[in-house]
Amino acid sequence: PKALEYIAGIRNAGANLLNIINDILDFSRIESGKLEIAHERYETASLLNDVLTVIRMRLDDTPIELIVTLDPDIPGILLGDMPHVQQILLNLLSNAVKYTQKGYIKFSAVQQKIGATEIRLRFTVEDSGVGIKAEDLPSLFGDFVRLEEMQHQHIQGTGLGLAITRRLCHALGGGITVASEYGKGSTFTATLLQGVADWQPMGDLATQRARHVQAQRISFTAPEANVLLVDDLPSNLLVAEGLLMPYKMQIVTCLSGREAIDLAQKQPFDLVLMDHMMPGMDGIKATEVIRALPDERYRRLPIVALTANAISGMKDLFLAHGFNDYLSKPIETPKLNAILEKWIPAEKQRPLEKAADVAPENKAAPDDDTSANAALPAIEGVDTEAGLAIIGGSPERYRRLLEIFCRDARARLSNLAAISPQG
What we know:
Layout: H1 2-31, E1 40-43, H2 44-58, E2 64-70, E3 75-80, H3 82-98, E4 103-113, E5 118-127, H4 161-171, E6 175-181, E7 185-201, H5 205-215, E8 220-221, E9 226-230, H6 234-244, E10 250-254, H7 257-266, E11 271-275, H8 283-291, H9 297-300, E12 303-307, H10 314-320, E13 325-328, H11 333-343, E14 350-351, H12 384-390, H13 395-419
Parallel strand pairs: 2-4, 9-10, 9-11, 11-12, 12-13
Antiparallel strand pairs: 1-3, 3-7, 4-5, 5-7, 6-7, 8-14
């Protein structure tokens, strides 16, 4: 127990140090005029959902109510710097969480059209926290300012969060204000300008979530299709199997390029999903060997590279070495579905004619322990709902995935320690 206490202290100190470093780096970039403002398309609902998900996790097991009011008419696709908008919102909401012991935090977002292609967003964060003294308000947004530090020693921070937030708001064409009553709470209001790529309203977040779930659904089944899945990590194989499960295909798995070559010669496959980076014989070499086998069917066999290296030019590299296509990791259902539609023979694809053709979300397979779902452990930092969805909805497979991942991670960490310059 004492060792665990020390380890927890080290972890918390490390996380705090990382936050301090990130704050100082952000501050330094802004002060030196090297802050780059992006102008890229992003989904408004996705931005807001991600921010609120983080804050809801921080509010778990606290007597604080999060009240959210969002203008559904905010355009669905904006043009701007999503990471910096996200940083502004997380800074303001995180501050509210840190300085509120009970009561509520209210978050609202509204928009004002100011041109043919631009809007002004106004975000408000109100809390029932400790509040700020009137004489302290003028210095609140100063550099390295932490008010009443002796009273808030238990709260980690650098005093840079609000200073950075103010500078980011200005860089995005807006500003930030605060109103507060000491002992009763504070209200921060941030405004910023963003371009509009699509004026179609974002609607409510629940609707957007439903659309996202719909996009994750499969478009066909292929019970007669045979697929070879190759990856040196058992946990990756389990995840990929879970993603493929709703298609009802016949899946064969193996852990090496050499084994993949042997299996390809023993039985016919309609598709091979081949990991790129594997010890010994990697996916590129294994694919070259399969292509060179003395039968024309090996030249026609669709082989798709699975890779975590999705940098520009990788597709050309894979095509040059005999692959037909590639799929980046982590595997996303829409992209996987597109790959399977393209390479599984059309005559083996069956259209989805009824809901029963698709495994319901988070429903266990018949051979699984369906009662295990309720007993799944709550692990800090692990999104169990998302994990179940990725693994095909099976609690038992999800448990096995966690066990395999832990076992693989321990083995690989010891390998890293053995080759590290520091030993």
